[in-house]
Amino acid sequence: MSRPPSVPIPSLDRADRAELIRALEASLGHTFSSEPITPSPGPLIIVISGPSGVGKDAVIKRLREVRENLHFVVTATSRAKRPDEVHGKDYYFVSKEEFLTMVEKNELLEYALVYGEYKGIPKQQVREYMARGYDIVLRVDIQGAKTLRRILGDSAVFVFLVAESEAKMVERLVERRTESKEELLVRIATAREEVKHVRNFDYVVVNADGELESAVRLVEAIIDAEKAKVRQRSAEI
Q1: Among 13, 47, 79, 171, which lies 20 to 30 A Cα-Cα from 98?
Q2: Structural domain tally of the chain?
Q3: Rounded Cα distance, 192 and 195, in Å
Q4: How many angstroms separate the CA atoms of 25 and 9, rounded?
Q5: Is there a catalytic annotation at residue 150?
Q6: Which of 82, 127, 150, 199 is flagged as catalytic?
Q7: Nearest Cα to 56, choosing from 170, 214, 212, 220?
Q8: CA distances from 234 to 44, 90, 130, 143 (A)
Q9: What family does the Swiss-Prot or TrEMBL record give for this protein (predicted)?
Q10: Known catalytic residue: 187?
Q11: Cα 224 to Cα 234: distance, rounded to the nearest angstrom
């Protein structure tokens, strides 16, 4: 391989920057590229899960407010709408018959029967926003996270959200006042069991009372760290 012809390089303290760069390029026989040295990170799928009463909705709502280029996938559910929820924003509220039709048409990435009601993630919504370069946030219960881990493997980031203690988790469930006594007992028993699944996730974030901003910043830091990795996660839906 022949060496490029020797080109005199002007004095560093006299030449302007453009002249110096042109001389360096000529000497090396190479034009310096203005393209990024590493490719821009692609869209990321972030799965946020955790037991009932840990504040998943609050963390995701705030995350959407402070972070750009992020799409929260609205889950379809057959359960009744709570007073403070908005159809199409918090969930797509559908009948059980409508939900089962979606299942038959293979329109859901995953779905599960939770506390007697169906929940599922529409595939098309994920595909559409990933194609537009958005990071995707999926909010699922523990059962849904297990299914998504089987489907997506390590191509998605799995974040486990917890309260600072079991007592605080139960307090939050009681304060919601959306369940009967029997339903509340089931939720508490289930939540206590679900905490044991933390080892199946990539990250754990504590959402302590009065510390919502801290929890959201930690989720943001997780996303930033994932995007800085040399080996990027890449999901295809």
Answers
A1: 47
A2: 1
A3: 6
A4: 10
A5: no
A6: 82
A7: 212
A8: 7, 27, 11, 23
A9: Belongs to the guanylate kinase family.
A10: yes
A11: 15
CATH, residue 118: 3.40.50.300
75-77 and 117-122: which strand pairing? antiparallel
pTM, two decimal places: 0.81
At position 109, the amino acid (one-letter code) is L
Residue in 17, 176, 177, 233 annotated catalytic: 176
% of the chain residues with pLDDT over 70 = 97
Beta-bridge partner residues of 91:
75, 87
> For residue 232, is it within any domain?
no
Domain presence at residue 53: yes
Q: Does the residue 189 lie in any domain?
A: yes
3-state secondary structure of 74: coil
- Catalytic residue flag (residue 176): yes
Q: Please report whether residue 92 resides in a domain.
A: yes
Tell me the two tokens of residue 207.
């959402």
* Per-residue pLDDT reduced to its tens digit, 175-192: 887 778 888 898 889 888
Sole residue written with tokens 């079991």: 166
